[in-house]
Each structure stands twice: as C-alpha cells, then as structure tokens.
Amino acid sequence: MSRSESPVALVSISAGRARVLRWRDGEVIQLDLPSDVPGRHKSTSHVRHDPMVRHGGSGPGQDEVERQRLERIGQFLARVTHAVREDERILVVGSGRLPRELAERLEQREHGRPRPRLIELEHAGYLTDPQLRARLLAWAGHPPRRRKAAPRRQTGRLRRDVGRAPERERAEELEELEELEVSLS
C-alpha cells in the first residue's frame, strides 16, 4: 500500500471537544468526541475579604479543582487515543498543550512496534469542518480541487475602459492633445 492509499486520520483537539476525521477508501468519515473537561475559572473582579479572617473552609481548594481538571483531561485524552485506529497515519491539529500531550500518548502507544506509524503535530487555531477536510485530504495525498474565482463584475466607467484597445486609447489621447493645442493658440 502506498502512502496515499494507507488509512489516514486527522485529530483536531481542544479542551471542549475532539474531532477525528478519517480518510478510508476515498471517503471522509468524521467522529465528534465531546469533552467534560471544565473550563478554567476566571476572577470575577476584586473581592474584599476581612484581613482578620483566615482563608480556607468554604468550597474546594484551588489545588483540588485543578487536580480534578487534570484528571478529566487525562480521561478525555485516553478516549481520543482509543478512538484512533492502530493502522492509521495521524496528523494532530490544535493549539495549546492538549495536541502535544495527545501526540505524546500516541507515540507511547507506538513504542516497541516493529513498524511505528507516522504521527505529526501541527499547531493551528480553531479550524472549521471544511478546513479540516481540506487538511485531511492534503495529508492523505489528495489535495482538494481549487476553483477559480468568478470574474468580478465591473460597473460604470471602469467597465467601458476594460474593452478598449491600447491603440484606441492612444488615439483618444492624441485627439485631446490636439484640442488642447487649438484652444491655447
């Protein structure tokens, strides 16, 4: 099987979800994996505290919240790793640390295999589904066909100028110069 015929997968991952796109037998198949990883909590603004009262007592500590978040990230990465098949070449796309961690997990799974598969990491911001499909097809060796843009419609004076031949423009310029000379004399 040549490179362009082997099964290919593209994984786009963020903390909110992962999208796994596969190229098999000339067809693109997409799998969406939602995440239950909580977002990072941001400060709501300045909160006044009584300096005589010590912190601690209400709600989980900051370390515990972050520990739970990291645990859920680990579970999510395990689900995504399990969703990728053993025989596919993989392109991992995303921003932040999750794509790198996923690529590392996939490489660890490959460790010790006689013929490890190709795993590449590409940093990119959010990509739409059509953009992901185009990246997948290019990765599989079948870049999408590019369409030519339709000719722009021109209006007003520009449209009249488009069809003129250079000789005609030159003749008009000469006529204008002759009229100018006649008016000056």
How is this fold's topology laid out?
Blueprint lengths: L7 E6 L3 E8 L2 E8 L27 H22 L5 E6 L3 H13 L8 E5 L5 H12 L15 H7 L3 H19 L1
Parallel strand pairs: 1-4, 4-5
Antiparallel strand pairs: 1-2, 2-3
Largest beta sheet: strand ordering: 3-2-1-4-5
What is the SS-derived class? Answer: alpha/beta
Discrete helix count = 5
Proportion of residues in helical segments:
25-40%
**What is the straight-line distance between the termini?**
85 Å
Oligomer: single chain
Give me the count of strands: 5
Quick one: biggest sheet? 5 strands, mixed
Q: Mean pLDDT, rounded to whole units?
A: 78
State the order of secondary-structure elements, H for helix, E for strand.
EEEHEHEHHH
- What percentage of amino acids are in beta strands? 15-25%
Point out poorly predicted stretches. Answer: none
Q: Nearest-angstrom radius of gyration?
A: 30 Å
What general form does the structure show?
elongated
What does this structure look like?
By secondary structure, this protein is α/β, with parallel strands linked by helices. A hairpin with a 3-residue loop joins strand 1 and strand 2. Helix 1 packs across helix 2. The chain is elongated and about 95 Å long.
